[in-house]
Amino acid sequence: MHSLPSIQRLGRIMRIICLLGMALLFLAQTAIWIFPSTEAWQNTTEYRAYLHGHDLTLVKRGLGWAITMLPTGFSMLGLWFLSGVFAQYGQGKIFSHEAVNGLRRVGLAGMAVIPAVLLSNPLMSLAMTYDLGPGNREIAVSIGISNSGLMAFSAAVMFYSIAWVMSEARRNAQDLSQIV
Length: 180
Fold this sequence. Notes:
The chain has helices at 4-34, 39-44, 58-90, 97-129, 147-177.
């Protein structure tokens, strides 16, 4: 097969990119909570609204990091599974059982990000206001999805669907190979 070496090379490169992406996600989330006074935290973190001018204590930082790692963790897990898929491609195993299952897992991890985000919002409001006086604590529940979240969820569904199609194609090819 003429294109197999190109696919293998691409698989190795993409695996490295996925692993680097995992590391960057982890480091970015960690940096936001270690250095909360930075402009990046002020501009990108919706949770600052819960502070109402109160201090971001070390405990709140730890809780905030843990809570934001819930959806980020599913994203990192998806990248880990995707790196495994690309590792299979790097070995020339395009339709292998492991590659197909890896794609399915990428889809499931991606779909799990949405409920994780929905859960993290009320947890974050509680974590940021737990030490305020009575009447000042809040649990904010927001049900909604951003455009980027919707696109990510759609991509996850596509990964899962492609895995299902590839699995069925593998099964049909095996069935056809047994017909004499």
